[in-house]
Write a structure and sequence with these properties.
CATH class of one domain: Alpha Beta
CATH architecture of one domain: 3-Layer(aba) Sandwich
CATH superfamily of one domain: NAD(P)-binding Rossmann-like Domain
Order of helices and strands: EHEHEHEHEHEEHEEHEEHEHHHH
Strand order of the largest sheet: 3-2-1-4-5-6-10
Bound molecules: NADP nicotinamide-adenine-dinucleotide phosphate
CATH topology of one domain: Rossmann fold
Radius of gyration: 20 Å
Helix content: 25-40%
Number of strands: 12
Distance between the termini: 58 Å
Amino acid sequence: MTIIDRKAPVLVTGATGYVAGWLVKRLLDEGHTVHAAVRDPGNEGKLRHLNALASEAPGSIRYFAADLLAPGSYAEAMAGCELVFHTASPFIAGVDDPVKELVEPARQGTRNVLEQADATPSVKRVVVTSSCAAIYGDNADLEETPEGVFTEEVWNTSSSVEHQAYSYSKTVAERAAWEIHDRQDRWDLVTVNPSLVLGPGLRPDSTSESFRIMKQFGDGTLKTGVPRCGFGVVDVRDLGEAHYRAGFTPEASGRYIVSGHDTDLADLAVPLRREFGDRFPFPRRSLPKALVWLVGPLLNKTLTRQFVSRNIGLPWRADNGKGKRELGLEYRPLEDTVVDFFRQMVENGVFDERPR
Ligand code: NAP
C-alpha cells in the first residue's frame, strides 16, 4: 500500500508526448506540481499546449531537460518527487535501425529512469507506460495463452529485433523495469499496458504512430481495403485517467492491461463512414489474406510474410478486468474515440479535401 503526498511534485517523463498530454492535464487539474522531463525545454512549439493547460488549471508545471540515453539526466527532475510516471519511449514504425531507434532508447531509458528512482530517496512509486506489446507479439500468440485471452500473466516471447521490433523494445524495457524494481523494496512499480491508443491529442502535430494510423483512413492509403487483423484500442483520454489512478490508488500493484475494445481496421471505418459519409476515401472492404501475403511486403516494409501469416485473419482478445476491478477504470464507446480523433484531424487541416 503506497500513499502519495499530493503536495509533492510529480515527475512525468516524455511530457511532450501524445499519451502524456492527458495525464499532465489531469495532474494540473488536480492541482499538482508537474515536473515535466522533456528533451528540449527550448522547443516552445512542443510545450505550447502544456503551458496553455497550466495557465488555466490550479496546478503548475516546471520543465527539465532530460534524455533517455543520458545517464543521470533525470536526477534534477526527480528530486523531491514521490511519484514518477515514465512514459517516454519512441513509438514509431518502419525504422531503419531498430536497435538504435527503438530498443536502446526503450531499454536504456527505462534503466536510466528507474535507477534514478533507486537513487532518489523521496520516490515511493514508479508507473511505467509499458504496452500490450509487452504481453503479445503476434495475434497467433493468442493460441498459446492458457485461457485463449491475453492477461497480465502473459509475456511477449515471439518478438525480436528482426520481427516486431517495437513490441520487442517494449518487452525488454518492461522486463528491465521489473528487474530493477525486484532488487529493492523502498518503491513500488506499477505498469500500465495499453493497446493501440487513439483519440484526440492535446498537441495537434504529434509524432506518435497513433496519428499516422488514423490519418491513413482519410488520406486514401486504405481506400482499396484493409486486411482483417484484430487488435485492441483504448481512448487516449481514458488512458490518461488510467495512469492517474495507477499512480494514486494506494493498493495498485503489478501490470494493468488498459484496453477498451477488441476490434480491427474494418470495424474502425464503420463509425467514420456513418459520421463523415463519402467525404473521405474510407476503406469499404476487407482484403483477402492471400492477397496481403502476396503484395503486402511490396507496399509496406512492416507487412512481412511472417507478419501476415501470424497476424492477418486472426482475432485479438484481452481481459481488461483487473484494471476495472482494482482501479475502477471505465471505457468510452469506440465510435466516440474514432470520430473525435478523425474530426480533430479534419479541423486541423490534415486532409486535402477536394470534391470527390
Ligand atoms: P509520442 O507522442 O511519440 O511520445 C513519445 C515521447 O517519448 C515523446 O515525449 C518523446 O519526446 C519521448 N522520447 C522519445 N525518445 C526520447 C529520448 N531519447 N529521450 C527523451 N525522451 C524521448 O508517443 P506516444 O504514443 O505518446 O507514446 C508514449 C508512450 O506510450 C510510449 O512509452 C509508448 O510505447 C506507449 N504506448 C503508446 C501506444 C500508442 O498507441 N500510442 C500504445 C501502447 C503504449 P520528444 O517530444 O522530445 O520527441
